[in-house]
Every structure is written in C-alpha cells, then in structure tokens.
Amino acid sequence: MSATARTTARRTAALLLGAALVTLTATACNSTGGASVSTEAKQTAATGSAAKPAGDQPAETKAADAPKAPAKVGDTIALKGMDKGNTADVTTVKVVDPAESANEYLKPADGKRYVAVQFQIKAAGAQAYSEAPWGSAKVVDAQGQAYGPSLAETKAGPAFQTPTNIAPGETGKGFVTFEVPVDAKLDKVQFALDNGFANQVGQWKIG
Asked: Does the pLDDT of residue 50 top 90, yes or no?
C-alpha cells in the first residue's frame, strides 16, 4: 500500500470514528424543540451605520422596517448551540465549484462533482469551539435536495482538522467538501453547531 493510500485510510478511519462519537454525544445531549433556520447576517459597524435620510423619518426606523435580505456568501451569522455558552460567529467565506481532488486516487463518482465550501468560525461564547465542522455543514440545491459532506480533500485549500479546537474569542478557517450530481444547481449552504445537531441552523444563499 502506497503512503498516499495509507494516509487516506487513516484519515477516513479517524473521520468515521469522529462521526460515531459525535452521533452518540448529540443523541445523549439533544433537547426537544423545533429547529429554526437563521438567514439574517450579523450586523457590523460598517453595515449597521447608515446616513440619516432626507425628511423627518430617522434612518433607524426605515432600516428596521425594510425587509432584510437573506445572508449570502461572505456574510456572518451568529449561531447558538444547545449549551448556552456554545455560540459562534460563522462565515461562509467562499464556494469553489467545481473543486479538484487533492488525491489522485480519490475522485468523484461517475456523474458527480466535488464542491468545496470554506467556513470561518469564531468562538464567540464562553466555551471553546471543539467540534467536527465537516459534520455541521450541508449544501442544498435549487430543488431542495440536501447533500452532506464528503471525506475527500480538494485543491481549493486546507480542510478542517477533526476535531477543530478554537479558543474563546479566536477564529479558525477551513474547507468542507461535498460530492453532488454534476447537474445539481446549488442554491444554499447550511451550518449548525453541536456537529450539526443544534436547533438553530445558519443558511447562506449561493450566488
């Protein structure tokens, strides 16, 4: 067995073991209650400030009344986990579609392509972020079909480590790969804390 094949086998085994542990933990901790999808981008100093418009109505009133556009690639969404101290500001940085495999022995199945999504995660709460981001993300096509992550790595850039550990107040960045049909038109990216089991799901519009 070549060194590349051994490395791939070890990574696959580690990811599968991580997924099993994540599932057991989430099953034990997950609370009842409906999930919510958050599409509102977090306001920054730049986006939150607006010049006062002409007339008597304050800018703040008009901004509050205006419908908010859904978050798009490049925006940040503030997400909450099941534990009060587990919060993170998550940004979908970019989408590489299609993405080329980083392993000459690992290619998409016939009729499929790789798509790589880069996320930035800031541990915004009192707790450190210690999860498997690849298990937290999904992509959704224009027909509403969701696709989970692939174990593949691509030339788009470095993947997240398993698990990814980010201290409170600090930021981490990495790619998650998806294997989707060649004719699927991707429409949304989704991400949830607690390895995908949190009730709140962040959603970004692609394009």
From this structure: no
pTM: 0.76
Percentage helix, strand, coil for the chain under 3-state DSSP, each rounded to 5: 20, 35, 45
Q: Whole-number mean pLDDT of the chain?
A: 82
- Nearest one of 166, 177, 193 to 107, comparing CA atoms: 177
Contact 112, 98 (CB under 8 A): no
Q: Which residues touch 1 (CB under 8 Å, ≥6 apart)?
A: 9
Both tokens of 174, joined, read 């990495």
Predicted confidence band of residue 31 (pLDDT cuts 50, 70, 90): very low
Among 124, 135, 120, CA closest to 196:
135
C-alpha to C-alpha distance for 129 and 172, rounded to whole angstroms = 9
- Whether the CB-CB separation of 180 and 109 falls below 8 Å is answered with no
CA distance between the termini of the chain: 42
CB-based contacts of 157, cutoff 8 Å, min separation 6: 96, 116, 118, 174, 175
**90 within 8 A of 120, measured Cβ to Cβ:** yes
Q: Which pLDDT belongs to residue 56? A: 52
Cβ-based neighbour number of residue 79 at 10 Å: 23
- Tokens at 189, concatenated: 């990216």
Report how far apart, in Å, the C-alpha atoms of 12 and of each of 90, 147, 149 are.
26, 19, 13
